[in-house]
Structure formats: C-alpha cells, structure tokens
C-alpha cells in the first residue's frame, strides 16, 4: 500500500495571531502566512495546521467561534484563504484547519436563539438544565479554566454548560440537528479544498445524559492544573463519542485523501480507541505523551515509546507532538541544549511528527507581565498562562522581530532574545537550531527508514542515554540520545557512520563498541 501524505509528512502548527502581521494591527493574518510559504517550503514541512481563523469575539482566541463558515476580519477574508490554499498546494503543502465542535461562542446566532427562551427550537442545541434544589448548578462539573462549568441564565432561569470559558457554551451532540449542522461545516471547508481538520477537544463531545457528579481527585493540590481537580468520569470519553468520530470520518472519506486529527488528552490505553475498531475514526489521534513525562530520562522515554508502539492497533499510524499553543515550549521545559535532543527524537521516531511554530528555532517561553495576560486560563491562574508560548514568531533583527511593522505594538511581547535568535540570522549560521531542524527534516524525507521504517528500542548499559533503531529493507539507522549534559560512553556493536549530530559539526565513521557522546548530544548513525 502506498503511504498517505499524512503518514509521510511533517505537520507544522501555525498560531495565526503570532506568525506574521502584514496589515499593521499587531496581530498576524492570512496574507502573512501566504508570504511565508516559501520559508515553510525551505524548512521542509509538509502539512500546515492553522489554529482557528473564524469570526470570534476572541474570548479564547478563536476557540470561541461565532460563525463557522467565514474568516475573522482580523485574519483576512475567504478570498485570502483561497489564495493561501492555492499557493500552498502549488508548493506541495497541505492545509489543515482547526474544527471546534464542542462549543460555540455565546455570540453565535445558534446560542443567541437557544438562550432566547425555553421554547426556542434551538434550545436543545446546547446543554441546559434546571438549577439544583438549592438554586446552585445542576452538578459538580468544573470548567477547564477553573470554577463551575455551569452558568445561570437569569432570563430563562436555567443553567447552561461550558466546559471552558463562560463565553463558550457546549453544544448538545446528542441532538441530530447539531450533528448535521456541524458536518455541513466540514463540507463547506472540504469543498473549498481544505485537506483536513484538527478537531478540538474531540474526546469531550459527549456528556452523560443524566449529568451525574464526577468523583473528586483526592490527590489534587493547589498549583496542579485546575482540570485535574476531578475525574471526568461523566463528561469525557463517553461511549457515544466514537459514533460521532466515525460520522465525521465518513464525511471526510467522501472527499478522497483528507486527514482527521483528534485533540485527545487521555491515557494511552484509551487514546488508541480513537483510531476506531476498523480504523474508521481519527487517522491521527494526537499523542501528547511527550508533554506529560514524569521526567526527561532515558528509561522513561523508552518505556513510554515502547508501550505506545505495543498498544497501537494493527495498521494504525503513530504520531508524536512535542509542543503546542496550550503548553510551555519544549526549550523552556527541558532547556535549549536538550531541546535539540528532543527535536532529534521527534523527527526520528516512527510516525507523523507535529512541530509547533518557532520550535524550529528553539524559541522559548516569554514571561508576559500580569497586566498583559490575554489568555482566559492565565487570567484565572497566571502561572498557567498559555500566552507565554504564543509570542510573535522571530523572523529577523528589525523591530518587533519582523513580525509587525516598527510603529506597532504586537498583541503579545516579542522575546528579548530575538536579535540573536531569528530566522534570518539562523539561516546564515550552519550550526544553528534552525539549520539542525531543517537537516533533520531533510534526512527524514530522504531516508525511507526514518519516514516509514520499523522502530526498535535498544537495550544498553548507560542509563543517561536512549538508543533506538529504525530499519527499512536492508537499511539500519541508530538514534543515540544523551539526555544528560555530561559526556557519556556507550558500548554497542558494529561500525557506524554519523550522519548528524545535534552539534552540527562532526560526521564520519565510528566504532560503536566505544561510542562517546558529548553532553546534550544526539547522534543519527547509519549502521555499516
Ligand atoms: C483546546 C485548545 C485550547 C482551547 C480549548 C477550548 O484544548 O487547544 O487552546 O482553549 O480547546 O476550545
């Protein structure tokens, strides 16, 4: 079987607000993305996923949609999206949009109708319920952003459910009209040539119809994520969700080779069910395990990766994500030197990798002062603000890092290191993080073993290093990662030729029986 483009390609996530501002309002836009397509092609990525670009009051920066079938004027127009699609396709790049089916904005006409009266025909499009006997919320469910997930609507005397911000009411997916309306949204974009969707919070779509209370997590401590406060027994991963995923998939399948990617934060044993029993659900249920490792250690990585490999259903295609717009950047989580090692891991593992914009430079979190925090989660819990990982892309040494013209204040501050860490400077430095990322992507494209081959972790004695082999037909490659900042020596077998090191400085033949690695070094080795 010929592999599909979503199996062989590298996904690149663009947060449109922060990519490139071409109209001088401090916010990135669609023409900005079109302008940077040559850069993305040069970098070597294949699939661009855009975070939401639809009309929105921006309470959650586009994840609160007031019209699913248009573009927010902040980002541009439908025509400008058509140009982007056409220009991307001309370069062999695919374009994936964010689909946000769990909730709309409270300013969406559907919700406006729904809240207008208990008798309105769209009342049942959302999840409304009478107050508890004491007048409080119908049950104990909490929002991901903190506090009760219920909001009282004074006019009609009922509560509506919002698993996120109060301005993001949850749709009622038990209602067949809601399903049809949302599948029409998919068709609208597929007809316009969109190559697929990343589906927001896919595992949350169905809720218990009896609205039973969730059990409380006894181990939760202040400082932990608010979303960990209770076990979401009754409002996530409900049995009925799989029928919906199959329905979405069947809409896509009528359009040929399109991709369905699911945002799903679940333990791995439950995540893999989202491939579907007959592989008829998500092509790629996002695998976020690299976000939640108990430590950046060889034994942990090996265990997580081997377990995932062993639990994948037959024929299911793996995928790996290192960072996104909801989590701290990888270079901040493990340090910039280890971020190169992580990049080598991401781009040499088996399965489709997802790179977050700016991570190709090793961009770091930017501390956004309290009074400038935009993120609704950050307003509630400043330490958990997601703004830190959403700052403007660093293009060059000019004011605002080339993101916005010089007289403009970008919507979030530009990182202070932009004069030394930006695309323009990095392209001239053959050892830069950017050139390292680009070389890795190129090797992944050139070597069938990396793109399509088998994965096998290798037993060896050095606990600071993680080693695995990728193989395809007669070709064998070793990836050797030193997860410490100290020199290490390993004893493997045979002879090998180093194709790439994280230091970007040394290639050549090595005796694997006594293999030395510098601190924070990763090696890609062809076995001879
Ligand atoms: C997803 C998005 C996140 C958003 C939330 C609600 O987790 O990635 O940014 O806040 O859904 O839509």
From TrEMBL:
GO terms for molecular function: alpha-amylase activity. SUPFAM superfamilies: (Trans)glycosidases, Glycosyl hydrolase domain. The keyword Hydrolase applies. Keywords: Glycosidase, Hydrolase. Residues 13-390 form the Glycosyl hydrolase family 13 catalytic domain. Pfam families: Alpha-amylase (PF00128), Malt_amylase_C (PF16657). SMART domains: Aamy. The keyword rRNA-binding does not apply. One of its GO terms (biological process) is oligosaccharide catabolic process. Belongs to the glycosyl hydrolase 13 family. This is Oligo-1,6-glucosidase. It comes from Reticulibacter mediterranei.
């Amino acid at each position: 079987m010929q592999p599909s483009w979503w199996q062989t390609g590298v996904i690149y996530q663009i947060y449109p607000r922060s990519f490139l501002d071409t109209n001088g309002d401090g916010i990135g836009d669609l023409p900005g993305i079109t302008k940077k397509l040559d850069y993305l092609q040069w970098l070597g990525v294949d699939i661009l996923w855009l975070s939401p670009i639809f009309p929105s009051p921006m309470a959650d920066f586009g994840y609160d949609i007031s019209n699913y079938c248009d573009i927010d004027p902040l980002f541009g127009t439908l025509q400008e999206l058509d140009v982007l699609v056409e220009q991307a396709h001309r370069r062999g790049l695919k374009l994936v949009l964010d689909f946000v089916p769990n909730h709309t904005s409270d300013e969406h006409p559907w919700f406006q109708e729904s809240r207008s009266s208990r008798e309105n025909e769209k009342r049942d499009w959302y999840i409304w319920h009478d107050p508890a006997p004491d007048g409080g919320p119908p049950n104990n469910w909490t929002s991901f952003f903190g506090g009760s997930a219920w909001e009282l609507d004074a006019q009609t005397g009922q509560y509506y459910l919002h698993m996120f911000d109060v301005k993001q009411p949850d749709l009622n997916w038990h209602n067949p009209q809601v399903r049809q309306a949302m599948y029409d949204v998919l068709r609208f974009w597929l007809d316009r040539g969109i190559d697929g969707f990343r589906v927001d919070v896919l595992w949350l779509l169905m809720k218990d119809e009896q609205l039973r209370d969730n059990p409380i997590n006894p181990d939760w401590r202040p400082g932990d994520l608010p979303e960990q406060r209770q076990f979401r027994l009754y409002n996530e991963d409900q049995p009925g969700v799989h029928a919906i995923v199959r329905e979405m998939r069947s809409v896509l399948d009528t359009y040929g080779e399109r991709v369905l990617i699911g945002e799903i934060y679940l333990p791995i044993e439950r995540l893999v069910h989202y491939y579907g029993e007959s592989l008829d659900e998500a092509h790629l249920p996002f695998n976020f395990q690299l976000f939640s490792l108990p430590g950046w250690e060889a034994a942990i990585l090996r265990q997580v990766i081997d377990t995932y490999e062993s639990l994948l259903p037959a024929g299911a295609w793996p995928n790996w994500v290192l960072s996104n717009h909801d989590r701290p950047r990888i270079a901040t989580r493990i340090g910039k030197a280890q971020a190169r090692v992580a990049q080598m891991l991401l781009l040499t593992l088996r399965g489709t990798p997802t790179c977050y914009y700016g991570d190709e430079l090793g961009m770091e979190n930017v501390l956004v002062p309290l009074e400038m925090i935009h993120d609704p989660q950050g307003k509630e819990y400043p330490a958990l603000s997601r703004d830190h990982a959403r700052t403007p892309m660093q293009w060059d040494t000019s004011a605002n890092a080339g993101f916005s013209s010089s007289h403009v204040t970008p919507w979030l501050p530009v990182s202070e290191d932009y004069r030394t860490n930006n695309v323009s400077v990095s392209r001239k430095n053959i050892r830069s993080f950017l050139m390292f990322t680009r070389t890795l992507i190129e090797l992944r494209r050139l070597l069938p073993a990396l793109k399509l081959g088998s994965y096998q972790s290798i037993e060896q004695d050095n606990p600071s290093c993680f080693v695995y082999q990728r193989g395809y037909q007669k070709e064998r490659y070793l990836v050797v990662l030193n997860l410490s900042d100290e020199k290490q020596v390993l004893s493997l077998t045979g002879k090998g030729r180093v194709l790439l090191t994280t230091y970007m400085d040394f290639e050549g033949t090595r005796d694997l029986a006594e293999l030395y690695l510098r601190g924070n070094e990763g090696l890609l080795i062809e076995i001879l």
